[in-house]
Amino acid sequence: AQSVTQLDSHVSVSEGTPVLLRCNYSSSYSPSLFWYVQHPNKGLQLLLKYTSAATLVKGINGFEAEFKKSETSFHLTKPSAHMSDAAEYFCVVSEVGGFKTIFGAGTRLFVKA
Amino acid sequence: EADIYQTPRYLVIGTGKKITLECSQTMGHDKMYWYQQDPGMELHLIHYSYGVNSTEKGDLSSESTVSRIRTEHFPLTLESARPSHTSQYLCASSESRGQPQHFGDGTRLSIL
Q1: Are A84 and A108 in contact (CB under 8 A)?
Q2: Which residues of A touch B100 (CB under 8 A)?
Q3: Rg (CA), chain B
Q4: For the residues A89-99, what does the mean pLDDT come to?
Q5: Per-residue pLDDT band at B31 (split at 50, 70, 90)
Q6: Beta-carbon separation of A44 and B98 below 8 A
Q7: For residue A34, which residues of chain B lie inside 8 Å, CB to CB?
Q8: Do A32 and B98 touch (CB under 8 A)?
Q9: pLDDT of A65-91, one tens digit each?
Q10: A86 touching B, CB under 8 A?
Q11: For the segment A2-19, what is each residue's pLDDT rounded down to a tens digit?
Q12: I want to staple A12 with a disulfide (CB 3.0 to 4.6 A). Which of A105, A109, A110, B5 is the partner?
């Protein structure tokens, strides 16, 4: 069975400081993992995806995530936060070739000036 | 970039009305999905489709229904709206199972 846990419901950082949004997953099969961002009154936008290639995945807007199988983690990072990064972030796990896609509960990122 | 469109973006309507939320995509994706999302909360899958004439209920029970007569079109209907249906509804599509989903901007529905 698959599951995904976003360890923080809220994260607050100052502009220009690093961002870390944590995600742990469980999957019986080789998973595909995704991070999405949702700005207010908008749909979800794909930030990056892991599909069993390189374990360090680079995404849009300077975000990246590292797949760590031993820790069953897929944390999202960014070296320097920008005000425009303030949004809701969702970690998602999906079985390769399978149907089930599981969304995490989301982490709201606040960026202080 | 993904092309998936939802209309209307916002709808405020009275109890008992019949509502259809539209969702169209121009990518030729077979897989389409409807999610319900309350403000600041997680997404709940309410319907999905593998292709034309295929529809299934999702994890969250919903009084809504869907149809898939054409690949690009996946409308959601509420026969008699109630205040408990107030929520945001997000439509998505994907090329195949396990691939990233592309989302519309959602319909924010308020039932008075």
Answers
A1: no
A2: 34, 46, 49
A3: 13
A4: 80
A5: very high
A6: no
A7: 100
A8: yes
A9: 999 989 999 999 999 999 999 999 999
A10: no
A11: 789 999 999 999 999 999
A12: A110
